[in-house]
């Protein structure tokens, strides 16, 4: 059965939890906007895909996760990394290709990983994450540790055989897995209205015998509630869930994308739908938080990003002696 969530009613967050959620979303936004600027200046090597505009999804889902849990990401993975607890400074250094990076400067933007945080890695392979999460969810099931696996993927990956096979396998084995389809409307430059056979990716859940939920991806609270129900169900042995989060990315598919396939949807989203604006308006209107508290977080995050960029630029690059390290695992 497919349902739609646009406003939560079942879960209440404490002021501290609200502040933490806002900090995570603000950190993702500031990180991505700074990477956008730095890449334009020519200092960042390789390819970069930005998550700005989609912060409520990663934050709403990962706020329910702990050290038992793991996520698999996509080529657009910075937000997932931050929401799962990967440190910002090593992430920035990794994007700059520096030795102090999360993967010692060898992975770059599309391959940031931190297994100690349950971040199995961003992934340049479209649809590469869902099979990994089936494996991680199976491990938790066999260990009986209550852990869940979460696979984030896009509308393009929703058509990949790896994703569909993973949905099928997760139901057959009743895995504690959650599949989060982040539908920003485009697989690269191809509209999902041209490439996805159903109007809603979540409708496909019925074919695999699992719940499917559609969520307003600009609303942190809606994502938080849907994810909370899915995580609780998975931990209790109730099996997998497919959540479709609908929103708009603020930048192109990649940095340098001229976005000739889009009109004024980004300007509309930034002005009227932005998840940070909506969060701030809601929590201050009902008196849960005040604007000064949120302003302090904005200042803290800005300082953190400034430090991260400065340290990344000053850090050494991998040298010849690093060429053959991190290649093989010794058993």
Describe what this molecule looks like in 3D.
With 331 residues, the chain is an alpha/beta fold. The protein is 42% helix and 11% strand. The chain has a single domain (2-315), classed as Rossmann fold, CATH 3.40.50. The chain has a 6-stranded parallel sheet. A two-stranded antiparallel sheet has the order 5-6. α4 (88-95) crosses α11 and α5 runs parallel beside α6 (161-172).
The side-by-side strand order for the widest beta sheet comes to: 1-7-8-4-3-2
- CATH architecture level-2 label: 3-Layer(aba) Sandwich
The span between the termini is 45 Å
Radius of gyration: 19 Å
Give the uncertain stretches in residue-range form: 5-10
What descriptive keywords fit this protein?
two-stranded antiparallel sheet; 331 residues; alpha/beta; 42% helix; Rossmann fold
Tell me the layout of helices and strands:
Layout: E1 2-5, H1 15-40, H2 55-62, E2 70-72, H3 78-83, H4 88-95, H5 129-143, E3 149-154, H6 161-172, E4 177-183, E5 186-187, E6 190-191, H7 192-195, E7 212-216, H8 220-235, E8 241-246, H9 265-273, H10 275-285, H11 291-314
Parallel strand pairs: 1-7, 2-3, 3-4, 4-8, 7-8
Antiparallel strand pairs: 5-6
Helix pairs in contact: 1-2, 1-10, 1-11, 2-8, 4-11, 5-6
In short:
With 331 residues, this protein is α/β, with parallel strands linked by helices. It has helices at residues 15-40, 55-62, 78-83, 88-95, 129-143, 161-172, 192-195, 220-235, 265-273, 275-285, 291-314; strands spanning 2-5, 70-72, 149-154, 177-183, 186-187, 190-191, 212-216, 241-246.
């Amino acid at each position: 059965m497919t349902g739609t969530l646009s406003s939560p009613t079942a879960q209440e967050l404490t002021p501290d939890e609200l502040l933490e959620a806002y900090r995570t979303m603000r950190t993702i936004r500031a990180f991505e906007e700074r990477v956008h600027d730095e890449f334009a200046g020519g200092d960042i090597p390789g390819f970069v895909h930005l998550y700005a505009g989609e912060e409520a999804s990663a934050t709403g889902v990962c706020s329910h996760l702990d050290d038992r849990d793991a996520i698999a990401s996509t080529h657009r993975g910075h937000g997932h990394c931050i929401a799962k607890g990967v440190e910002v400074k090593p992430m920035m250094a990794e994007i700059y290709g520096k030795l102090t990076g999360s993967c010692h400067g060898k992975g770059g933007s599309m391959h940031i990983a931190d297994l100690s945080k349950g971040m199995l890695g961003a992934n340049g392979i479209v649809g590469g994450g869902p099979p990994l999460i089936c494996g991680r969810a199976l491990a938790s099931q066999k260990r009986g540790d209550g852990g869940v696996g979460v696979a984030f993927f896009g509308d393009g990956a929703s058509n990949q055989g790896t994703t569909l096979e993973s949905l099928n396998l997760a139901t057959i084995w009743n895995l504690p897995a959650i599949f989060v389809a982040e539908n920003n409307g485009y697989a690269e430059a191809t509209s999902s209205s041209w490439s996805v056979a159903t109007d809603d990716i979540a409708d496909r859940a019925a074919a695999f015998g699992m719940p499917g939920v559609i969520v307003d991806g600009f609303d942190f609270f809606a994502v938080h509630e849907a994810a909370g129900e899915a995580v609780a169900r998975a931990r209790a042995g109730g099996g997998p869930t497919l959540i479709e989060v609908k929103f708009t990315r603020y930048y192109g598919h990649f940095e340098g994308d001229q976005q000739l396939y889009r009109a004024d949807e980004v300007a509309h989203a930034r002005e009227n739908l932005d998840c940070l604006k909506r969060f701030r308006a809601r929590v201050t209107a009902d008196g849960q938080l005040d604007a000064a508290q949120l302003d302090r977080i904005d200042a803290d995050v800005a300082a953190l990003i400034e430090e991260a960029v400065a340290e990344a630029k000053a850090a050494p690059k991998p040298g010849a002696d690093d060429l053959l390290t991190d290649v093989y695992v010794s058993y």
